[in-house]
Amino acid sequence: MKRNFASCVDIWRIGSIYPSNGGIVEEKEVAVLIRTMESKVQEIEDFIIKYHEGVTHPFIGVYDTRRINRDYKEWMSGIVK
């Protein structure tokens, strides 16, 4: 938020299950939804890869929103620089 990458960040604590070393691992993780503009996606990805902790291969996916309401988009464009 301090770097003006996003207008909002939603954080959920979740349980995850995945294969590892021939077994199945269950652990607590965090899912994050970052509301931003297309022009900031690569900077956010680079930031996450550089500063994430405890995950060898963090998942970073982009959900392309076809439309957002004008008021929010105008507000966001004043925040995301």
- Main sheet makeup: 2 strands, antiparallel
The secondary structure category is alpha+beta
In round numbers, the mean pLDDT is 91
- CATH top-level class: Alpha Beta
Largest sheet, spatial ordering of strands: 1-2
Helix content: 25-40%
| Portion in strands | 25-35%
**Oligomerization category of the chains in this entry:** single chain
Total DSSP E strands: 2
Low-confidence stretches: none
Tell me what the CATH architecture is. Answer: 2-Layer Sandwich
H/E element sequence: EEHH
Looking at the structure, the CATH topology is Alpha-Beta Plaits
End-to-end separation in angstroms reads: 11 Å
Gyration radius, to the nearest Å?
Answer: 15 Å
What does this structure look like?
This protein has two helices and two strands. With 81 residues, the chain is of the alpha+beta class. The protein has a single domain (8-79), classed as Alpha-Beta Plaits (2-Layer Sandwich). Strands 1-2 form a two-stranded antiparallel sheet. β1 and β2 (23-35) form a beta hairpin. It is elongated. The N and C termini lie close together (11 Å).
